[in-house]
Amino acid sequence: MDLGTLIGIIVGNGLILSAMLMGGTMDMFVDVAGLMIVFGGAVSACLMAFPMKDVIAAFKAAIFCMTADKMEPNQMVQTMCDLCQVTRKSGLVALSKMKFEEDFLRKAANLIADGTEEDVIRSALTIEIDAMKARHAVIQDVFAKLAAYCPAFGMIGTLIGLVQMLANLSDPSAVGPAMAVALLTTMYGAMFANMLWNPIGAKLASRTATEVMNLEITFEGACAILAEGNPMTVYEKLSSYIPAKSRVGLAKKKK
């Protein structure tokens, strides 16, 4: 699991639960009807706004944001430089005998090894990158909408609770508990939006940026391999994508 995600979950939830327990018991903050309105309402609204396959894909992506990145950009730069050295020694056909975990890198290597024209390779890889960006944008939009819907449904739940409270004004003892229940739905809406959907959306956006960078490094590296570039020249070009500190460490490995 990604360390930052784990720390955020533990610290964020721990602080809020501690604050709740300092002023009473957890039973005070549990209302099944309010949870149904906020969570169920937000998900239902998303199902109306997006195709079901996109909503399902979004929830699957939420699990993905809990894991660490498959490959950091500096590792991808190292991989492309190594491939450049291999092709200079053994030719482009050598790529067909190699195994790659990353689908995009495998596709690029296969196209190069098959002797595909450079324009076709550039076009195919560019389309792949653009398609990935479009898919991820939809998934991030799902979480953005969930974050927007939850407070709205929280307010709806509050209004429902207030109506029920006003209908029982003749019983003063019921006013306090009814008001508490009404306010709980607002709290649920704020918590779901700011402790769940917004952080997941932001994490996925960060993951997308890293993945796009890896794809662009692969794309530029593939073009350099086609041009039979010198490994050090390829390194100098691709290292522009990564921070200076990581770049220094990678440069030491290249020497």
Describe, in plain words, how this protein is organized in 3D.
This protein has 255 residues and is mainly alpha-helical. The longest helix has 55 residues, at 172-226. It folds into two domains: 1-26, no CATH class; 31-74 and 116-254, no CATH class. Helix 2 runs parallel beside helix 7. It is elongated. It has helices spanning 3-22, 32-49, 52-64, 73-90, 103-113, 118-166, 172-226, 231-238, 244-254. The chain contains nine helices and no strands. It is 80% helix and 0% strand. The mean pLDDT is 87. 25% of the residues are buried.
Kindly name the structural category. Answer: mainly alpha
Report the radius of gyration as a whole number of Å: 26 Å
> What is the number of domains?
2
Largest sheet: none
Number of helices: 9
Question: Could you tell me the strand content as a percent range?
Answer: under 5%
Low-confidence stretches: none
Percent helix range: over 70%
Order of helices and strands: HHHHHHHHH
What is the chains' assembly state?
single chain
Shape: elongated
Mean pLDDT across residues? 87
The count of strands amounts to 0
Gap between N and C termini: 33 Å
